[in-house]
Design a protein that fits this description.
The chain is of the alpha/beta class. The chain is built from 17 helices and 16 strands. Bound molecules: GDP-alpha-D-glucose.
Length: about 475
């Protein structure tokens, strides 16, 4: 079988035995180990090179997997990562045009880094490799590879939402970006709605593209497969660690400190897309509406800081600290703090055990590609006494977890009602909801996500090479019909 090449902005550090590495990294790594391959990306280091320049990749081999990482110059980091990726694409793709800025120089830096990374990867490629590129930092990566003459099949998976065309159009080079995405052979989204938004742009925009029933899209003289591949988790592995870690000291401390109170729990990277401010305010609304819950329920919010050198992230941190202080000041009693706001990272297994203690998983992003925390919360529950998931309708996960209490995160009153309902839900109903969701999590686990995507990419590989042999050039029509299955 051909080697797999995974390309992502950061290379997960599982190779160092990092216990904090998430399920996603482990899932991708499993695929790499199966066929052997390379994981290529930014090392996370800032170098003294000139913009657009970097040393050859640092290579580290572990069994049949090679990790190849490069550094970025300060200017490349500022323009590609901090700038266009995280101050333009991230907010816009999460429908926050109000927080998005556009700077031509940053966009030029974004394209320059994509081109530089493509050049670095090209040197590592073998003719039979298939390439799987991840996320919004690398929208033009396949186009850069094609410009270098690379013919290997290249697939792309977008972990975040794809916005409606009207929203996308607020990013000035929107058409260039979508055109660049059409250089991939497979483009995968988290949900059907994201896929549809992409297709809508291509069909109704200026690109005169079209998509057929098999999900083969034709635009700018290219044929590519576009589909939804909702990302999953390994629910049974999570259930197991959540149970194993139940008696660890920090978990016991949390349990003991609750003194029989109910626990509502949230875990998010500290990001404005996660709806933390609205979430705190809805919890405040619960305390206002239902004084009998005073002293009987606490909200624990774990929010490790991320991208703290991007200005909008500094602002959300300040706002949230202010809100937590204000709400606690308003309701706290000598022996009860309503909101425990923990601005730090926890070990992954411990986090799963903490989820198991929580009566309510409170996951209310304003927009989210999928949201793995929602899935992890369900998987971590004790089947005999499961908690209830309160979930935003704007998380991709809402389409996959029908047993959740689904809320609109902009409707504070509705969220407060859902919290109250979750806190009072009878055991039989909790168990029924949990059982349904757990079955779906098993059915659509992380391996299914990965294998379905890679099967489609391999299918393209087979179709292209058969076609090339037959006619000595890629006959788009034949590729198209072979994809219609
Ligand atoms: C992007 C998309 C999509 C959180 N705090 C700690 C910690 N975590 C872990 C969680 C979970 C992961 O980080 C976060 O994943 P999410 O899916 O919730 O969100 P994003 O980071 O925004 O991820 C998202 C995802 O990509 C996958 O495609 O679902 O929509 O935005 O696994 O448990 N892990 C540890 N300590 C923490 O304090 N160890």
């Amino acid at each position: 079988m051909s080697r797999l090449i995974v390309v992502s902005n950061r290379v997960a550090s599982t190779q160092k035995g990092n216990p904090a590495a998430g399920g996603l990294a482990i899932g991708v790594l499993d695929a790499l180990k199966e066929t052997g391959g390379v994981w290529f990306g930014w090392s996370g280091e800032i170098t003294g090179e000139a913009a657009g320049q970097t040393q050859a990749p640092v290579i580290e081999r572990q069994g049949n997997v090679t990790y190849a990482t490069v550094g970025l110059s300060r200017r490349d980091y500022d323009q590609y990562y901090r700038g266009f990726s995280n101050a333009t694409l991230w907010p816009t793709f999460h429908y926050r045009n109000d927080l998005s800025r556009y700077d031509r120089q940053e966009y030029a830096g974004y394209r320059r880094v994509n081109a530089m990374l493509a050049r670095q990867l090209q040197a590592l490629l073998e003719p039979d490799d298939i390439i799987w590129v991840h996320d919004y930092h690398l929208l033009p990566f396949a186009q850069c590879l094609r410009e270098l003459g690379v013919k290997n099949p290249v697939g792309f998976f977008l972990h975040i939402p794809f916005p409606a065309p009207e929203v996308l159009r607020s990013v000035p080079p929107h058409e260039e970006l979508v055109k660049a995405m059409c250089s991939y052979d497979v483009v995968g989204f988290q949900t059907e709605a994201d896929r549809q938004a992409f297709v809508d742009y291509v069909e109704r925009g200026h690109c005169h593209g079209s998509v057929d029933d098999a999900g083969v899209l034709h635009a700018w003289s290219r044929f590519l497969k576009v589909a939804a591949y909702p990302i999953g988790i390994y629910p049974d592995a999570i259930a197991q660690v959540a149970e194993q870690y139940t008696d660890r000291k920090p978990v016991r401390s949390l349990r003991d400190g609750m003194h029989g109170r109910k626990l509502i729990m949230s875990v998010d990277r500290l990001d404005y897309s996660k709806g933390l401010v609205e979430r705190f305010q809805a919890f405040e609304r619960l305390l206002l509406n239902a004084p009998d819950w005073h002293g009987r329920v606490s909200l624990v919010q774990v929010a490790p800081p991320t991208r703290s050198d991007v200005q909008t992230y500094q602002r959300i941190r300040q706002t949230l600290e202010g809100e937590a202080g204000r709400i606690n000041g308003r309701f706290a009693q000598l022996n009860w703090t309503p909101i425990q706001y923990l601005n730090r990272k926890y070990e992954r297994n411990l986090l799963m055990a903490l989820f198991r203690q929580a009566h309510v998983g409170y996951v209310t992003p304003l927009r989210d590609g999928m949201n793995l925390v929602a899935k992890e919360y369900v998987a971590a529950q004790n089947p005999q006494d499961p908690g209830v998931l309160v979930l935003s309708q704007f998380a991709g996960a809402a389409g996959q977890l029908p047993g959740a209490l689904v809320v609109n995160p902009f409707d504070l009153a509705q969220m407060a009602e859902a919290l109250e309902r979750a806190l009072s839900m009878p055991l039989a109903e909790r168990q029924a909801r949990y059982t349904d969701m757990m079955a779906l999590l098993r059915e659509n686990n992380l391996s299914v996500w990965r294998d379905t995507f890679l099967a489609d990419l391999r299918h393209v590989a087979t179709a292209s090479s058969a076609t090339e042999k037959a006619v000595r050039r890629v006959d788009a029509q034949m590729l198209r019909s072979s994809l219609e299955r």
